[in-house]
Amino acid sequence: MEKQEKLKTLHERWFAKCTCELKKTATQAVPGDGNANSPIVFIGEAPGKNEDIEGRPFVGTAGKFLAEMLESIGMKREDIYITNIVKYRPPNNRDPLPEEIKACEEWLAEELALIKPTLIVFLGRHSMNHFFPLEKISQVHGKILIRTWPGLGRQHFLALYHPAAALYNGGMRETLIEDFKKIPKILKKIEKDSEK
Hints:
Oligomer: single chain
CATH superfamily: Uracil-DNA glycosylase-like domain
Largest sheet: 6 strands, mixed
Radius of gyration: 16 Å
C-alpha cells in the first residue's frame, strides 16, 4: 500500500477513535493534507472556521499567505504535507487546551511516523511548544532545532511565526518571509549531512 493510501486509512481510523472534546462542537475533523512523500511537514495549531467547514487545513487567509510563501521558494501546496496539532476547531478559534492537544497527539505522532519527513516546520508557538515546551518562538524562530522523537529518531525542526499572526503585524510578516526563504537551504544541508 502506498503512503498516501496508508495515510487515508490512518485518518479514517482516527475519525472514529479520537476522543478530543472538541469533536462535540466542531463540524468535522480536519486531518493533515498533502503529499505523503514530502520531505517537509508543516504543523499548525488547530483548524479555524474555514478549515472546519472544508475539512482541510490552512484554506483561509493564513493558508493563502502560506501558498504565496511556498511559491517564493519554488514550491506548491501539493508538494508539501500540512497538519495541525489539534484536529478539531476550538470554539471561537480560541487556543487549544493542553487536554485537547493530548487527545490528538497520537494521531499526529502516527502521521509523522508514516511520512518520516526530513524537516518538520512549526507554524506558531503552539505546535513548537508541543515538541519544545521550554522554547520561546521569539528567540528560536528561523533556527534549526534538533531532538530525538519517538517514531522519528533524530529529527530536524524549524520554528516559524504563524502566518495568521504575521498577516496583521508588518514586522513579524517580514521576519516570517525571511525565515521561510531559509527552508530550501536547510533541506539541502540536512540531506548533505545525512550522506556523511
